[in-house]
Specification:
seven-stranded mixed β-sheet; about 30% helix; about 120 residues; 7 strands; alpha+beta; Nuclear Transport Factor 2, Chain: A; globular
């Protein structure tokens, strides 16, 4: 797949919340995921696609409901894909959340090898 094809498929899957298909189809088994804001949870840097899937499942368990999602079209270069993602919803404890982030992915040899969320 080209980087544009990867970006289009990733965008399609993330837009509907199908992260696990994205990880299975598009990511290297050795992917590195960085999210410094999750340091207190021990999730600032996670290595390996299975560990990333576990992180997503753990974070998803905290959300009771997603009320909206807005994503920009992907920006694609020879080695990176980026887009903005704004998600609003309710947590399990009833509080609202609003997450606005930049999603940055590095691609090598047709697979995503790193992801970083900046918010």
């Amino acid at each position: 797949m080209t980087n544009q094809e990867i970006a289009n498929r990733l965008h399609e899957l993330v837009k509907v919340g199908d992260y696990f298909t994205a990880y299975s189809e598009l990511f290297s088994v050795d992917v590195v995921a960085k999210e410094p804001q999750l340091a207190e949870m021990g999730l600032a840097e996670v290595k390996g696609v299975d560990a990333v899937k576990e992180k997503v499942a753990k974070l998803g368990a905290g959300a009771a409901e997603l009320t909206s999602r807005e994503m920009s079209d992907p920006i694609v270069t020879d080695s990176h894909i980026a887009f903005t993602n704004i998600v609003k919803g309710k947590l399990q404890d009833g509080n609202d959340f609003n997450l606005s982030e930049i999603c940055l992915y590095r691609v090598e040899e047709g697979k995503i090898v790193s992801e970083e969320f900046i918010y």
